[in-house]
Amino acid sequence: MNLKDLIVDIVYDKDYSPLTTNEMVKFLKADKYMKDVIIDAIKSLEKENKIRISHKGKILALSEDEKSLFGRIELAQGSYGFFISDNEKMKDVFISKENLKQAFQGDRVKIEIIKEAENGRNAEGRVVDIIEHNKAKIIGTYEQSKNFGFVICDNKSIGNDIYIAKKYSKNAKNKDKVIVEIINIPKKGNPEGRIVEIIGHKNDKNVDIYTIIAKHDIPYQFSKETKKEVLYINETLQESDYIDRVDFRDLFTVTIDGRDSKDFDDAISIEKNGEDYDLYVHIADVANYVKRSTAIDNDAYDRGNSTYLYNIVVPMLPKELSNGICSLNPNSDRLTLSLKMTINNKGKVIANEFYQAVINSNYRLVYDDVNDFLDDKNESIYTDEILKEKLLLFDELYKILRAKRDERGAIDFNFTESQIDVSDDGKVLNIEVLERGSGNKMIEEFMLAANETVATLFAYMDFPFIYRIHEKPKAEKIEKFKKFLNTMGYNIRGNDLYPKDFQKILKEVEGEDKEKIVNLLMLRTMQKARYSKDCKEHFGLSTKFYTHFTSPIRRYPDLIVHRLLKAYIENKLGKFNRVSLENSLEKSSEHLSITERRSEDCEREVEDLMKCKYMRRYIGCEFYGEISSVTDFGIYIELENTVEGLFMYKFSKNHYEFIEEKLQAYDTTNKKYYSLGDRVKIRVKKVEIMKKNIDFELLEEDETVSQQQESLS
């Protein structure tokens, strides 16, 4: 729990007696270092309208009514808007154009209710205060006139075009995709803006992807200072780099990655030690090159992680590092942080050692070939007998580790992922299910073991650290999931559930028609993993201690871990100010959890874009698919190639009723029930590239393919 959450918990406790700011500082037993931090947190909470300060300086909780009147504005195309309350239980409030008080899309506001909800209509409100203007960038297409221009927003809920005076046009050309910021919202007429960035002409190669990157506020240009610092990076190791390093260059070492990968931040080695295994996980020593507070470091922290978008990568680090000196390329000396784990034949790590090392990878292997060798027993893939021997040893250990993880109850979801092949200019060549073989799973298992080992070290030292945590599901979500399972004939017993309970269900449905749906519903039940300075369990992996250590080229949290680990190896942890470090880790954890979600949202939207591009060629074609979701407005259907589309009831001549408790749709015209996992036939009706939507038409057949009500009762 962070400091602000702690203060909120105190203030909203039923036994709380109002305190002043100074009294709160004393109550929290803060030292002189923490006093200012607590005062800043209280000011921030007041600004965010999560607490209020009385005229006597007392910190007070907001009443439910007060909380309900704070929220944000969502505009609609008719220039009116809706107020989305901070109180999730409160329904949206209609705000007419006249009552918006110049509030714009996403602005945080306080409102008052001027008309209560009645006859199914939303309550009406009026904006009384704009607390904070939305700082999100607005993206659109520039329409040029002689002395001015307009930006037509991609977000159609922003009903009005944005007026751009010539002096604020940044010399944009007609049909350029641009980023604009609002500088004035007059009482009459269009909002006025200033172009802050030109993404490119709307017909430029990959401009659609760069537009999505900009929409999610992901920095994709390195700063001038970073570009200067990159000039001083050596392309090869210098003599001084080898000093005080353990030499692992004679250790047989390989990297295993995708065929198109260009940055290799992990390599592995193995030796048999009696009945035990010595597994070496070598991770690129990025911290040796990226020093704190440099321009490269600042840019990396802002990005938080690399973002992978098929034919485009927004890297966390400049390519001179990520693809160059930090990449564990074959037959090249490279600096690493290496972890040696001695693992017994039960899969337990019985000893570990950490090294600042130098390695020289023998082979750059790819998953497809390793899978052919291990899964398909294709001996001709490799000719090197030592390589074959090591791969078989890796596979042997992988199966032991996997069995150990299964035994403790780790939840292993079985999802179909998309393999989308995209050309350099953004054309989608093919979409199919991504196949994951033993090679992929083996590397994943070894990295899990390494991450857990590093986290365990710092947890037992009780030293400030950044963990990867995954809290147990919330009770209400578990209850909902259990009800869904009951409708499908499965049960989880008990109230206090453990990972093993969820694992048992996944094994029970393995290979069944409902496997994909149960996996999906279970995933929706889980909380999202995040970074935290607090040492909490990772529920999904069923482990007490977990972190991210193995990918410092593409994840900033791993770089933080590397810096702490290097200090541990050099016996310098005592030089840290623990209070200052904890505050830094708290801020970093929050920021890096946000940047991770930002990248995931961007990657998901680009995936939707690619699927729309691909399916345009199949408009009018018929396919079979599986119902992946049922809602009150339509049915989502996933095709065999992982493309998902929506059949909307309102476009059908038949009438449908939504049965929420069973997640079913009932066609009252044909007396048919449609349930999760049912196989149905569809026709591709419409593809909207801008909205990233694919519409399906649900086809009727002589023989029904849906589950009938009787079988689910």
How does this model look, in words?
This protein has 713 residues and is α+β, with helices and mostly antiparallel strands. The protein has 17 helices and 34 strands. The chain has a 5-stranded antiparallel beta sheet with strand order 6-5-4-7-8. A hairpin with a 7-residue loop joins strand 5 (81-85) and strand 6 (93-95). The model is unreliable at 702-713 (pLDDT under 50).
Task: Summarize the structure in short.
It is built from 17 helices and 34 strands. With 713 residues, the chain is of the alpha+beta class. A five-stranded antiparallel sheet has the order 6-5-4-7-8.
Key traits:
28% strand; 17 helices; five-stranded mixed barrel; globular; alpha+beta; five-stranded antiparallel beta sheet; 713 residues
